[in-house]
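Running low. Invent one:
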Amino acid sequence: MEVLRVEGLEKSFGKNRVLQGVSFSLKAGDLLGIIGPNGSGKTTLIDLISGYAKPDGGRIFLEGKDITRLPAHRIALSGIGRTFQIPRPFADLTVEEHLFRLEKEDRNKLLKRVGLEHLRDRKGTQLSLGQRKRLELARALSLKPKVLLLDEVFAGLNPASTQEFIGLIRSLKEEGIGIVLVEHVLKALFALADRVLVVAEGRVIYEGSTEGVHESPEVRRAYLGERAFES
């Protein structure tokens, strides 16, 4: 079942055309990986889908409903959760208090799932980067999303944490959550993605299998050589 459809998204900041007619769809339980050079519009795309910015053109549908012009909080409550590149927990809240939307039992289950149950009483600003990313994911999951937008969740993680996150995200897929993963750690992305979307200069230059992306001359040109695929 299709849970998310993006049609012809356009976005400019002044004279800079950040997105130029980006389209894709996402089914329940699928993971779409989005890659591209820095400045190609990936995070802007996440901002548009989650309502943190509004497109200049195009439309966004969640389970067939047009959510293009809804405010961010309405989009979140409709079933789209997201994480941010730089996690910013509330300074005056404990880890557990960040999940205020949930009942106590559900908070306990979610904290255990993301590996933060032993830190429930610690302030969010006292966490390491990896722990903050876990908390950011828990906050998104507390909305019980149908679609999860992940923006560079693997950046800065050590190998052990990376493998734990891969397992966690794979389990979310198995539960039927549709996931959009923007990522520069390509080994992690290729381990998870059902399809890959490559964006360069605001345009989609490739959409297809993880195997095919390695063979695309246009993708290799966008990444300025083959070494990008070794990261």
Remarks:
- The chain has a mean pLDDT of 93.
- The chain is about 30% helix and 25% strand.
- The two ends are 33 Å apart (CA to CA).
- The longest strand covers residues 2-13.
